[in-house]
Design goal:
The complex is a heterodimer of chains A (83) and B (588). The longest helix of chain A is centred in the N-terminal third of the chain and has 32 residues, at 2-33. In chain A, strands 1-2 form a two-stranded antiparallel ribbon. In chain A, helix 1 (2-33) runs antiparallel to helix 3 (48-78). By secondary structure, chain A is mainly alpha-helical. Chain A has one domain (2-78). Chain A is 82% helix and 5% strand. Chain A starts with a helix and ends in a 5-residue tail after the last helix. Chain B has 588 residues and is mostly helical. Chain B has two domains: 3-24 and 31-309 and 400-471, Hydantoin permease; 313-387, no CATH class. Chain B contains 21 helices and six strands. Chain B has helices at 3-24, 30-35, 42-53, 56-69, 74-98, 103-110, 114-147, 151-201, 206-209, 224-235, 248-264, 266-269, 278-314, 324-331, 389-397, 402-440, 446-469, 475-499, 505-527, 543-561, 567-576, and strands at residues 317-318, 335-337, 345-346, 360-364, 370-372, 383-385. In chain B, helix 5 (74-98) packs parallel to helix 11, helix 10 (224-235) packs across helix 13 (278-314) and helix 13 (278-314) crosses helix 15. Classes of the chains: A mainly alpha (83), B mainly alpha (588). At the A-B interface, helix 1, helix 2, strand 2 and helix 3 of A face helix 5, helix 10, helix 11 and helix 13 of B.
Chain lengths: 83, 588
C-alpha cells in the first residue's frame, strides 16, 4: 500500500511536470523568448509569435487542464484512490 | 428606442434576475454561507469562477490596454489565463482534499501556527480590498456614462445589490448569481465583437477576423494587423504586432507574476472549496479556464478592431465633424483634445498630448472643445483617450444598434459586481471565520457565526462603497501590489506545503515575510517614492516574480535548517495527496 501510493504520487508528479514544461514552452518560449524568430513565419494575417502570445498559448492552456483531468481520472482508478 | 431606454431595460432586467436568484438561494448555516454547501456542480463552478475572476478590469479595461500596447498587451492575456494551469495542476485538487473554508485556514493548519495564519489573513484582506476599489471605479464609469446618473448614486445602487445577495445567500447566493452574471457578461462581450468583426473583415469569428483582410475603405484588401503595424509606424508608435514597448525580461517577469498571482488570489482559490470532490475541483478548473478563454481570446481581436476604428474615424479629421461618441466621452472627461497647431483637425500621434490626466478649466475653445489646464507637451499628439473607454465606446464607434450598446453596459456591470461579491466574501470570511471564530471565540454558535459573517459583509460593502465614491488616487498603483503580494506570499508556501512534507512552520513564516517585505519595499520605492527599478530593470508589476523566488529559497533553506514538522502534519500532507475521502469542506 505504502509503495503503491508512492508510485501513484511519483507518476502524478512526472505527468504534471511534462504538462508544465509544455505550459512554459508555449507561453514563455513561443510567446516571449522566441517571438521575433517565430514572427518571421505567418499563418494568415498573423505573425506566428504574436499569434502564440495572444491566441495559441491560451488554447494550449485549456487543453492542458483537461488532459490532466482525464489522466488523473485514469490514474486514480488504477491505484484505487478514486472517490 | 434610445440607447438610454435600452440601457435601463437591460440593467433593470439583469439586476432583477440577480435579486431573484439571491432570494431562492438564501442560506441558514455557515457551510452554505462560506462554501455554498459544498455541492456546486463543476460546470456551474466553472462559470462562477470565470465571473469571479473576470473583473471590470478584464471586461472594460483589458482590450483597451492591449489596443494601446499591441504585442506587449499579451502580458495580460497570458498572465491572467496561464495561472489557471498552475491552479489546476498544483493547488486546486489538494486544497479541495484538505477541505477547509479559507486560504488562511490552510496556511494556519498546515504550518501549525497562528502567526502564519495571521500573516496569510492580512495578505488576503489587503489583496481583496485593493481589488474591490477597482471594481467600484468600473461600476461608477458604467453608470455615469450609460445611465446618466451621478457616479455616487451608481455606486450606491451597485453596493445595495451586492449586499443583498451576498449578505442573504453568502457563497451560495454569490455562486448562482455569478453563473447568471457570467452568461450576461460573455454575451455582452461576444455580440459586439462579432458585429465589428463582420463589419471590418467579413468574418463572424473575431478570433479569426483579426487575422483577416480589411473589407472596405482605403486599406481594403490588406491584412488588418499589417495595416495596424503600418499605421502605428506612421504615427510614431511601436509596430502593433512587434515587441519593443518593454524589455523581454520585464515582459517575462510581469507575465510570470500575473500567472502566479492569479493562482494565489484568495477569491479564486476559495471557489474550489465549493465543489463536492477532488475530481470536480480538477474538472471545474478546466471549465473555468475554458469560459475565461472565450473572453480572453476575443479581447485581442476587440483590441485590434478598436485601434483600427479609432484611428480610422478620428485621426486627421476636423473636430467639428467628430462623431457623437467622441463628444459624449469628451463630456465625461475621458477624451480630451488640445488643438496645438490651431488647424481644427484632430492629430493623433505617439506621446502624451499634455502632462497627467486631463484637468478641465471649465471653459470651451472656439470649436466647443473642453479646454484643459494641464501643461502642454512638445510633441505633435493632440488627443488624450482614456484606455478604459475602448470596450465601452467600441460599439458606438462601429455604429452598432442601440440594444448592443445597452448590453455592453449590463455586461460591464455584471463583470464588476460578480468580482466585487467574490472579494467581499473573502474579506468577510477572513474576519468572521479566520479571526473571530478560529482565534477569538472558538465556542461561537452557528447562529452567532452566521451573524458575524453577515455583519462583516455589510462592513466590507460600506468600505468598498466609500472607496468607490472617493476613489483613492493610488488605485492604479496598488493593483501591482495585489498580484505582487499574492505571488510572493501565498503561492510558494501553499505549493511547498503540498509537494514537500519537510517544509515546516519556521520556513513558511520566514519565507512569506521575506517575499512580502522584498516585494512591498520594491513596489513602494518605485510607485510612491519615485525610485528606480534597480533590480535588473524589472518593473513594479513584475517584481512579484522575484519575491516569489525569494520566498521559495528562504522557505526551503530555513526548513532544512530547523526541525521537521510534527508527525501528524506529515500525515496530513500524505492524506491530501490522494483524492479518496475528500468529503465536504469542514470548519474545524
Amino acid at each position: 500500500m505504502e509503495k503503491n501510493l508512492k508510485e501513484y504520487w511519483s507518476k502524478n508528479v512526472t505527468f504534471m511536470s511534462v504538462l508544465l514544461v509544455i505550459w512554459a514552452v508555449v507561453s514563455y518560449g513561443c510567446g516571449i523568448i522566441f517571438v521575433d524568430a517565430l514572427n518571421a513565419t505567418r499563418i494568415g494575417g498573423f505573425p506566428l509569435g504574436f499569434w502564440f502570445a495572444q491566441q495559441g498559448a491560451i488554447y494550449v492552456f485549456v487543453c492542458l487542464i483537461f488532459v490532466y483531468y482525464f489522466y488523473m481520472q485514469k490514474l486514480d482508478k488504477e491505484y484505487d484512490v478514486h472517490e | 428606442m434610445s440607447i438610454l431606454t435600452w440601457t435601463y431595460i437591460m440593467v433593470g432586467v439583469t439586476f432583477g434576475l440577480y435579486i431573484f436568484i439571491a432570494w431562492i438561494s438564501r442560506v441558514r448555516d455557515t457551510k452554505g454561507f462560506y462554501v455554498a454547501g459544498g455541492g456546486v456542480p463543476p460546470l456551474a463552478n466553472g462559470m462562477a469562477t470565470a465571473a469571479d475572476w473576470m473583473s471590470a478590469a478584464s471586461f472594460i479595461s483589458m482590450a483597451g490596454l492591449i489596443s494601446f500596447l499591441g504585442y506587449t498587451g499579451s502580458i495580460y492575456l497570458m498572465g491572467w489565463t496561464g495561472g489557471y494551469v498552475l491552479l489546476a495542476l498544483l493547488l486546486a485538487p489538494y486544497l479541495r482534499k484538505f477541505g477547509k473554508y479559507t486560504v488562511p485556514d490552510f496556511v494556519g493548519d498546515r504550518y501549525y501556527s497562528d502567526i502564519a495564519r495571521v500573516v496569510a489573513l492580512i495578505c488576503a484582506i489587503f489583496v481583496s480590498l485593493t481589488y474591490v476599489c477597482g471594481q467600484m471605479r468600473g461600476v461608477g464609469i458604467v453608470f455615469s456614462r450609460f445611465l446618466e446618473v451621478p457616479v455616487n448614486t451608481g455606486v450606491l445602487i451597485g453596493m445595495a445589490i451586492v449586499f443583498f445577495y451576498a449578505g442573504l445567500g453568502g457563497m451560495k447566493g454569490i455562486t448562482w448569481t455569478q453563473v447568471a452574471q457570467y452568461s450576461v457578461l460573455i454575451i455582452a462581450y461576444i455580440i459586439p465583437a462579432v458585429f465589428i468583426s463582420m463589419k471590418i473583415t467579413g468574418t463572424p469569428i473575431p478570433q479569426i477576423g483579426f487575422g483577416s483582410h480589411i473589407q472596405e475603405g482605403q486599406y481594403a484588401g490588406q491584412f488588418l494587423l499589417d495595416t495596424l503595424d503600418k499605421l502605428n509606424h506612421d504615427l510614431g508608435f511601436t509596430a502593433y504586432t512587434q515587441p519593443g514597448a518593454k524589455s523581454m525580461l520585464d515582459v517575462f517577469c510581469i507575465t510570470f507574476a500575473l500567472m502566479v498571482g492569479t493562482a494565489g488570489l484568495p477569491h479564486v482559490i476559495i471557489r474550489f472549496y465549493t465543489v463536492p470532490s477532488v475530481r470536480a475541483a480538477r474538472l471545474s478548473a478546466g471549465y473555468a479556464l475554458l469560459f475565461i478563454a472565450i473572453l480572453y481570446t476575443t479581447a485581442p481581436a476587440v483590441a485590434a478592431f478598436a485601434r483600427y476604428n479609432m484611428i480610422d474615424t478620428i485621426n486627421n479629421k476636423p473636430y467639428a465633424e467628430a462623431p457623437s461618441w467622441f463628444k459624449n466621452w469628451e463630456k465625461t472627461g475621458l477624451i480630451a483634445w488640445v488643438d496645438k497647431n490651431n488647424d481644427g483637425i484632430i492629430q493623433y500621434r505617439a506621446g502624451k498630448p499634455f502632462k497627467g490626466k486631463p484637468k478641465f478649466s471649465g471653459k470651451t475653445g472656439p470649436l466647443g472643445q473642453k479646454l484643459v489646464k494641464n501643461p502642454i507637451t512638445e510633441n505633435a499628439n493632440e488627443l488624450y483617450v482614456d484606455r478604459d473607454i475602448m470596450v465601452l465606446a467600441n460599439p458606438e464607434i462601429a455604429n452598432l444598434p442601440a440594444w448592443v450598446i445597452a448590453l455592453v453596459a449590463a455586461g460591464g456591470l455584471a463583470a464588476a459586481l460578480s468580482t466585487a461579491s467574490g472579494l467581499l466574501l473573502v474579506i468577510a470570511s477572513s474576519i468572521a471565520h479566520d479571526l473571530y471564530y478560529r482565534m477569538i471565540n472558538r465556542k461561537a454558535t452557528e447562529k452567532q457565526r452566521l451573524m458575524v459573517g453577515r455583519i462583516m459583509i455589510g462592513l466590507a460593502v460600506c468600505v468598498a462603497g466609500y472607496f468607490g465614491i472617493n476613489p483613492p488616487g493610488f488605485v492604479a498603483q496598488v493593483v501591482a501590489f495585489a498580484f505582487g503580494l499574492a505571488a510572493s506570499s501565498f503561492f510558494p508556501i501553499i505549493v511547498l506545503g503540498i509537494f514537500s512534507a519537510r517544509t515546516n512552520r519556521e520556513g513558511a513564516i520566514c519565507g512569506m515575510l521575506a517575499g512580502i517585505i522584498f516585494t512591498a519595499v520594491y513596489i513602494i520605492n518605485i510607485k510612491f517614492l519615485g525610485g528606480t527599478a534597480w533590480f535588473m530593470g524589472i518593473s513594479a508589476e513584475g517584481i512579484g516574480t522575484v519575491g516569489m523566488v525569494l520566498n521559495f529559497i528562504v522557505t526551503i533553506l530555513v526548513s532544512s535548517m530547523t526541525k521537521a514538522p510534527p508527525k501528524e502534519i506529515q500525515e496530513l500532507v500524505q492524506s491530501i495527496r490522494t483524492p479518496r475521502g475528500a468529503g465536504a469542506a469542514v470548519d474545524h
